[in-house]
Specification:
There is one protein chain. By secondary structure, the chain is α+β, with helices and mostly antiparallel strands. The protein is built from two helices and five strands; from the N terminus they run H-E-E-E-E-E-H. It has a five-stranded antiparallel β-sheet with strand order 4-3-2-1-5. The chain is elongated and about 120 Å long. The termini are far apart.
Length: about 160
């Protein structure tokens, strides 16, 4: 008796080897593109960290703003408040800020001069014109009349309201 696979006709649909390899090719291409963009980001972050000098304002990846006091091989000493120093890993620096931006964010200094800024009053009193009648919003005095209760009972008596 002959083997069961012998004598059978070939499958009429030929197997295309590229159709089997196509998903793997796409997967490898996607991995290549992702690693390439990640390497670019790492290189940009490293060059940004190389721009740090003593006195530079930085933002950590946690969102804290500080001034660089000392730069080590893998660490950075930051002054987070006057006289308060903290040691951070260089990888924890999220952005190196320019002086103008750092001063604007941390100290509230702006580049615009004070003369150009519009004057905003602290209250609405300067918005009223001259002799406008003033509204008294205080508590009005109660009408003075007889202090005797209408039912004839005073406080402290039983049945008084």
């Amino acid at each position: 008796m002959a083997a069961p696979w012998r004598g059978r006709a070939k499958d009429p649909r030929p197997v295309n080897n590229i159709s089997f390899l196509l998903p793997f090719i796409v997967l490898i291409g996607a991995m290549f593109l992702m690693t390439r963009s990640a390497k670019k980001k790492q290189a940009q972050a490293a060059s940004m960290r190389d721009q740090m000098t003593t006195g530079t304002g930085v933002r950590t990846i946690g969102g804290m703003y500080a001034t660089v006091k000392e730069i080590g091989e893998d660490t950075v000493t930051l002054e987070v408040a006057p006289g308060v120093h903290a040691v951070y890993a260089k990888n924890a620096i999220g952005a190196v800020l320019e002086d103008a931006e750092y001063n604007r964010i941390v100290h509230g200094f702006s580049e615009a001069s004070e003369d150009d800024a519009p004057v905003v009053p602290d209250d609405a009193s300067s918005l009223t014109e001259g002799d406008a009648p003033k509204l008294d919003l205080g508590k009005k005095d109660e009408p003075k009349g007889d202090d005797e209760p209408k039912d004839g009972k005073t406080d402290g008596e039983p049945g008084a309201k």
